[in-house]
């Protein structure tokens, strides 16, 4: 093995997202001596610190001789300040990649193999391409034993919360696929107002226009550390935080980032992702909402029942009490789609506004009553009454306000710079809507990266419409995004199925 070479570190000012990249000149002596080529994986070291990065080769005009350039994330991870002599060498061989190749060819992995893969991903030893290989090899090809092992490995990859003085710690999760289904803030407010402990950590959007963390970030600070989460829960029984800020199951966050880029969300990875986050948060009881509809993530009752069995099997293996509820998913929930628009619906329900979306309110009450029942607060008939009383009496709104205050205060919901109403192509009755294309429309408008972007519906299934009657309003922070989304709607007006008036 040759001795590592040293070059002076230079920050290139290039954003390569979460994948570290380094840059060397094409005529660099190190490249020639070691046989480094573009896309070679390198190890870069400074004292006791080391990272693995992907090499990009640049012309002589881009980088002075004797220098190695760093992208933002590579610079940050190695803790550089500028001018340091950094040593370069070939990255060590990743033996866990043999397990990835084994899975690519359709073979089951052992718990040890899965653990090795997750450890290397957590330590940032995999490139995005290698993570993508693992993700795609596992899509709908994991058996229950592999899912249990993957869940355990992801929990072990990061920190865990513990609640020694809390015999019950409750949580809930929705499988997704239904735009606007933002029940979590309402459910957490109701359950914690009833005295239940709910340290809710949520993810950002994977394939949707908004995740719970995206919507909550419109309303309050969600970047809470572990100490802040524990202090908030001690103060108000609950929190509504972004899980990615606290290193709970960090390998899952890395997998989610790649799943987002690929627009995939396999059943096995989803179960492992959801339950690893719940276990890392210290949960003892978890309620899973599985919406079913022709354009939802889960398309059929048999598929939903299979998923529920899988959640139950993995939950039992990991000593987690899981209850799955199969719910209606044939149309968007509420009126808003996108962080700010969904936040408006959440506040409307919590504040008992007259124009609050009834479907969002009733769905949240249904889920909250099941959580209260899981916690032993009475029969479902009794907990339904309790949940409704907490909401309608204003206790849930007061509790939500306390949660936001404990996390840094309630913020003003932002308004989009541009908006446009879009109407029905013809008169008739609204018979169906395509959840996937509706979500796509909101994302084209800029959601969730632009919190104010998205759309607001003006009709629900079964409603009679006149030709040209507003079906939705688009919101965007740039005219280009607004025009692009509107053009998509013009080409896809059948995302709303309207029955002809006789």
Structure description:
This protein is an alpha/beta fold and 502 residues long. Helix content is 41%, strand content 20%. The chain contains 18 helices and 18 strands. The protein has helices spanning 29-34, 72-78, 97-104, 111-122, 128-138, 144-156, 184-193, 212-219, 226-236, 250-262, 267-280, 301-317, 339-350, 358-374, 380-392, 395-406, 435-444, 479-491, and strands spanning 5-11, 21-25, 41-46, 49-58, 67-70, 85-90, 170-174, 198-202, 238-242, 285-292, 321-328, 336-337, 418-423, 428-433, 454-457, 464-465, 470-476, 496-500. Strands 1-5-2-4-3-6 form a 6-stranded mixed beta barrel. A 4-stranded antiparallel β-sheet has the order 12-15-17-13. Strand 3 (41-46) and strand 4 (49-58) form a beta hairpin. The longest helix is centred in the middle third of the chain and has 17 residues, at 301-317. The chain is globular and about 70 Å long. The model has no long low-confidence stretch (mean pLDDT 94).
* Helical stretch tally: 18
Taking pLDDT < 50 over at least 5 consecutive residues as the criterion, the unreliable ranges are: none
Summed over residues and divided by their number, the pLDDT gives a mean of 94
Q: Which structural class is indicated by helix and strand composition?
A: alpha/beta
